[in-house]
Amino acid sequence: MYGGSEMNRVVVNVPDERMDRLVEMYHPRKIVPATLEVIDIPGIAAEDSTRRSRLLGNIKDVEALLHVVRCFEDEGAPFGHSTIDPVRDVETLDLELVAADSVTLENKINRLEKRVRSGDKDAVREARDCEKVRATIQEGIPARKQGLSPQELASIRECNLVSLKPVVYIANIKTMADAGNRHVQALRQVTMSEGAEMITVCGKDEADISEIEPGERAVFLKELGMEQSSMERLLRAAYHKLGLLSFFTVGEDEVRSWTCLQGDKAPVAAGKIHTDMESGFIRMEVMSYTDLMELGSEAAVAKAGKQRLEGREYQVQDGDIVSVLFNKKG
Description:
This protein is 45% helix and 20% strand. It has helices at 17-26, 49-59, 86-117, 121-137, 150-156, 182-194, 203-210, 214-223, 230-242, 266-273, 275-279, 289-295, 298-303; strands at residues 8-13, 30-32, 35-40, 65-70, 167-173, 197-202, 244-249, 254-261, 281-288, 308-310, 320-326. Helix 6 (182-194) links the parallel strand 5 and strand 6 (197-202). The longest helix is centred in the N-terminal third of the chain and has 32 residues, at 86-117.
């Protein structure tokens, strides 16, 4: 994370071909894709400790870290080091994260001290877990690499540790000729070792493609050996790492994509649409996107017996198209 001086926020639409096909089918008056907010936080490893602390504080509220790592040689491109070393750059950022987390854990341990002295069993357990995590962090091992148990995760949850957040590594290359170079391979080894996600972004080539008419971009991406743009691949990697899925509501008024966690049950997913739908949930009418596309209409899906009613225990699936019945307040 180098370059720039302050953080920037941007809300991006999540690319989804299914939305395009649903829009073609329903011709809605309103189209609302799913979105993710991406925050660019540059220069975390800067020497200015006050600025570094401020930037690290902004990471507290994010769900995942997208770590852009330089993986190409170019003496003309500014960089904070004299050499290119992705492993070093990953370790440098991790050291910044664990240093911040060590302070956070120490503060919680201090807050628990009075309750620990009184013999409060919950406080004793939490303090013990926090001490264990902090001791390992002080060895330079981020919390996400510690294999923490559910109990340990519960004990440190309120700390919102930055080194516990999942990571998507972005190998930044200059041209597609760099895609298999030793720097990319080194970053891929890091990614595999911690079970993270990684994508390769070809900055220059994709910047050129972004100037082309949208309808022609796919051809040029394919010539570069890429089926999707970097933003599409990045968002898909982030979705996968965060355990997210998309479901839809459709109709002539609106086609909208919603986001929930894998494993979320019907009332929780309904609550993403409106809070009243979760509290007053009765049932959910569901059909799959695949069935709708194969059969061509809602009526055909229903006739084939593939439109179903689901209750409170149903786990919403990626690609579900839903309608919620609920008790309205008031």
